[in-house]
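Quick check before the chapter quiz. The format below is the same one you will see on the exam, so make sure you can read both the input and the output lines.
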Amino acid sequence: MKLFDLSGKVAIVTGSSRGIGRAIAEGFAEAGAKVTISARNQAPCDEVVEAIRKRGGEAIAVTARISDHAQLENLVAKTREQWGRIDILVCNAAINPHYGPLENLTDQVFERMMTNNVLSNLWLSKLVVPDMKAKRDGSIIFISSIGGLKSSTVIAMYGVTKAADIALCRSLAAEWGPDGVRVNCIAPGLIETDFARALYENPERRARVEAETPLRRLGQPEDIAGTALLLASPAGAFITGTTLVVDGGRMAV
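Here is the expected output.
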C-alpha cells in the first residue's frame, strides 16, 4: 500500500483559488487525485486548473458561493458529471468580516458567518456523503483554526464558528463512522495567506507572533496541505473525529 497515494480518487476543495485551499488542491493532484477547484470567481479557479494540468494532473473549475445551497448542489453535481463520484471533501472556504469585541457584533454578521463557516460545511457534507457511504470509504476535512480552541479579543466570532466546526466534525464522525466515512478537522495557526493578512501585516505584531511560536515562523499553505493529504489518504485510514493542530507549537506553550 502506498500510504499517501490518492490515485483514482475524486476531491472537491472549496476556497481553492488561493492560499491554503490552493495548496491542498495542488497537493492532492500531485498525489494522483482528480480535483474540483472551487471559489466565488471563475478566473482564479481557471488559473489553478491550468497550473495543475501543466504538471500532468486532472482538475476542473466550478464556481460556488458557499452561502448558497443551490450553488453547492451544482458544485457537487458538476463533479459527479465529470468523474462519477466524490471520495474526498475539503471545506476550506470561510469568511471573517468582523474584527474586534463580540459586544460590537451585529446579529446579521453573526448569522452570515455561521452560514458561511458552519452551515455550508454541513450542507456540503450531506451532499457528498451518499457517494462515500456507497463505497464505505470517504474523507471529509474541515479547515478550522486554533481560534476555535482559545479566546481572542480580535477574531472572537471567527473562533466561535471554528469551534462549531470542531463540534460538527466530531458528531458527523460518530454518525458516519459505521459507514466507513471519516470526518476530521485541521486547526491551523497563523498562516501566511491573503485571508489572514490583517493578523500579520503589522511588523511588530508579526514579530510578536513569531516569538510566541516555538518554530519561530508563520505557517505556509503547504504546511496545511501535508496534513490534509494525511487525512485524505490511506495513511489516515484510522483517524476520525479529531482535530489536528498545525500551528508551529503555539498551542503547546
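If your answer matched, good. The two ends are 37 Å apart (CA to CA).
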